[in-house]
Amino acid sequence: MKKNPFEQEEHLKYQLDQYKVDVSNVEWERSRKSRWIHYLASPTNNPLDLLMETMRGWTLTKVIPAVLSMCLAILQVIFL
Amino acid sequence: MNKTVEDWMSDYQHGNKDALESLYQLYKEPLYSFIYRYTRDEPFSVDVVQDTFVRLQLNKMQYDPERGTLKAYLFQIAYRIMITKLNRRKKWQSLLPFLTPQPADSFSQEDKMSVQEAVSKLPATHRAVILLSYYHDLPHAEISSILNLPIGTVKSRLHTAIQLLKKDLEVKSNEEKPL
User: Fold this and answer.
1) Whether pLDDT at B177 is above 60
2) Averaged pLDDT score across all residues of chain B
3) Where are the transmembrane segments (chain A) (predicted)?
4) What structural domains does chain B harbor?
5) Residue ranges in A1-80 assigned as alpha helix (H)
6) Sorting pLDDT into bands at 50, 70 and 90, what band is B122?
7) Would you say B167 and B116 are in contact if contact means Cβ atoms under 8 Å apart?
8) b/e map B48-72, b = 16+ CB within 10 Å
9) Full DSSP string of B87-131
10) Who contacts A61 (Cβ-Cβ below 8 Å, separation ≥6)?
């Protein structure tokens, strides 16, 4: 006869039973378009987070766009 | 006479499309719960359930009741789809970390929070074994075919998972006790 591994684990069973799942949102079919829209709308990590963690990175994220726009302005003045 | 799920599947294999709808209504909940408890990702779990039934429709003639129950067959399909998707996601995560969706954590009750945390902290294969065994009441032999593991490994992982959960949940309940 097989022994149930949870037989003696009343406390564990009580805890595991608290883990309920709401299954109301499972539709019969969801189109690829809908999946793609959901994927685009889902929250993601900020790609600049790594830079923002250090003071130097934070400064660079502010300085680089300013320097680039200045370079662009200078190039426009020279060539136009 | 009451029909078994295997009879419904047989009806579906012989062209009765309503039988598929009945199978979907019967199994969408357990499949979703398994995937959700494993990944804690709601849209991902919905996608896996849908893909499981799409795969069932495509390969309906491959199911043979002599090789196992329909429940184990569906869980096997779902588990494989989930693992493939998770591996694909991991690959994308390493290439473009900022494009990978963050899993949403929704803890609402203290007990739920600790048991959710404890389950998701388990190593992946141990987690699958305990979810299939406890929440879906699957015997060791069926878990072994779903996860493609020897029965001995399933038993030892289940034992380890129970010990890990007990340890983790006991620590948590001790932490919550007032001084």
Assistant:
1) no
2) 86
3) 60-79
4) 1-104 (1.10.1740.10), 106-179 (1.10.10.10)
5) 10-17, 32-41, 49-52, 55-79
6) very high
7) no
8) bbbbbbebbeeeeeebeeeeebbbb
9) HHHHHHHHH-GGGSBPPPP---SHHHHHHHHHHHHS-HHHHHHHI
10) A48, A51, A52
Question: Residue A78 corresponds to which tokens in the numbers above?
Answer: 């020279």
B10 near B65, Cβ under 8 Å?
yes
Distance CA(B5)–CA(A50), nearest Å, equals: 52
- What is the maximum alpha-carbon separation in chain A? 90
> What pLDDT score was predicted for residue B41?
87
CB contact under 8 A, A44 and B49: no
B116 touches chain A (CB under 8 A): yes
Which one is predicted more confidently, B5 or B179? B5
Residue A43 is given by DSSP the state -
Question: Do residue A18 and residue B111 have CB atoms under 8 angstroms apart?
Answer: yes
The complex scores an ipTM of 0.77
Which residues of A are less than 8 Å from B46 in CB distance?
25-27, 30
State the Cα–Cα distance between residues B33 and B37, nearest whole angstrom: 6
